[in-house]
Amino acid sequence: MVLKHFILITTLNLLLFSCSNEQKNRSEKVEEKINAKYLFTLKCAACHGSNGKLGASGASDLSLTELTDEELNSVVNNGRNGMPSFKESLSKEEQLEIIKFVKSLRK
After folding, report:
1. Tens of pLDDT along 57-75?
2. Which CATH number is 61's domain given?
3. Would you say residue 23 lies in a domain?
């Protein structure tokens, strides 16, 4: 009887553990997407708009940009025209996330 309970409890723990890891992996992937959009909203949307088309203060329409990853990285790091540099305020990972998000806005 004790062995039966032990096997049952062990099996349930294994099932619960495997399900929680899978859910955690899904949550992390969703969080990455939300993080990129959040960063863009926080740092870029005031001028570019949430869809990249606002053009406030002379900002470029990001849905039309044909800049390469390197060129986008340079703009994020160094700024451009009225756009400030984000080299000091964003980590490299955050910069890459914003660049990915900007690319997703292209038509």
Report:
1. 999 999 999 999 999 999 9
2. 1.10.760.10
3. no
Strand partners, 5: none
Give the domain range for residue 82.
31-104
Assigned domain for 91 exists: yes
Q: Is the whole-model pTM more than 0.90?
A: no
Domain count, the chain: 1
When pLDDT is cut at 50, 70 and 90, the band that residue 83 belongs to is: very high
Find out whether 99 and 68 touch, Cβ atoms under 8 Å.
no
pLDDT tens, position by position, 26-64: 555 555 556 899 999 999 999 999 999 999 999 999 999
Measured distance CA(49)–CA(40) in Å, rounded: 9
Q: Can you tell me the distance from the alpha carbon of 41 to that of 100, in angstroms, rounded to the nearest whole number?
A: 14
Contact partners, residue 73, CB within 8 Å, separation at least 6: 95, 99
Q: Is residue 85 part of a domain?
A: yes
In a domain, 25, yes or no: no
